[in-house]
């Protein structure tokens, strides 16, 4: 039917009103029911879920499913067991609260956590005794014989039906949904050999994250401040601005060939006027490559920029920017900082026929079985440092930043309250 004049304008007006009402109703529906749909507003905090136990309904990252413990159906007779390669007290003090928070006793999925001993340092071993005593669901394992490299830590895997969460002792952050997400994906996909979390500070993934645009401009503070910085602060907004040359301060090399300026130094954000953009090619992150042995493995400066950028997004509430669905590593090497694997798949080949457990478990064995190694991009975790980053210049690398203190401050404020710490002793009970 054809209309003209006032009748045509009235008809178009009516159609416009109907469409506008539909758009507004859709927006209202998404806003009021976004928890069910898995959406949230950009202004909502990505750590809003932390004050609640992992099993409760909480805030969800934009556009990605948020897997709670209650969303995972564990088959009868299947345990979920944490396996931590223990070695360094100062790092485990951060990880401890995240693990306790994910125990079944607190609404999580973990039946127990095994601390596989990988150190001879007496102070660290003494702390491990306190740690194990702090939870009836913690226990330690010491290899019964000598193995090459880290092979002995896998000796603790003795349940073929269990799902094991292999976690490095220097994982300093992971979201409540990380364990449920990778356990659920592994259970639902028997064709996968192992599922890794989406790791921040993981060589090839750092390159992926950089190309997703999550890195921020940061440079080291080269001289000690005249006034002591606020203690127990993890918030990037409390850092002063970097005020030196845009290509970095004098005496600093972005490739990590210079030592950290002093112990406990901060990295400061490059804050520019709104009409200016920082050139990321001037930063350590510009050197990252899609390579398991690239600068993301060895450069302490790349690690530092990685951590301060993440802490920036943690406060901003937009860590969803790191996320994706899945990433297939196509049998290439992947650093195994945080992954889920079936007990049977370990026990079938233990002790491994090669001393490099990482290469065997993500390259050799999966390729033999034609079963893929997958990264779950919705399961976000942070790995503190690889050995070269941690021990650079005799420990004067990322270890000399205050990044670890910031992660501990975040855990103390947001994760640890209400959890039993190592200084609280409990009677040892048998884990069923």
List its traits.
alpha/beta, transmembrane helix, Nucleotide-diphossugar_trans, transmembrane, disordered N terminus, single chain, membrane, nine-stranded mixed beta sheet, Spore Coat Polysaccharide Biosynthesis Protein SpsA, Chain A, disordered C terminus, two-stranded antiparallel sheet, 14% strand, 32% helix, 12 helices, 432 residues
Verbal overview:
The chain crosses the membrane at residues 12-31. With 432 residues, the chain is α/β, with parallel strands linked by helices. The protein has two domains: 69-203 and 319-386, Spore Coat Polysaccharide Biosynthesis Protein SpsA, Chain A; 209-316, no CATH class. The protein has twelve helices and eleven strands. Strands 1, 2, 3, 4, 5, 6, 9, 10 and 11 form a nine-stranded mixed β-sheet that branches. Strands 7-8 form a two-stranded antiparallel ribbon.
Summarize the structure.
The chain has 432 residues and is α/β, with parallel strands linked by helices. 32% of the residues lie in helices and 14% in strands.
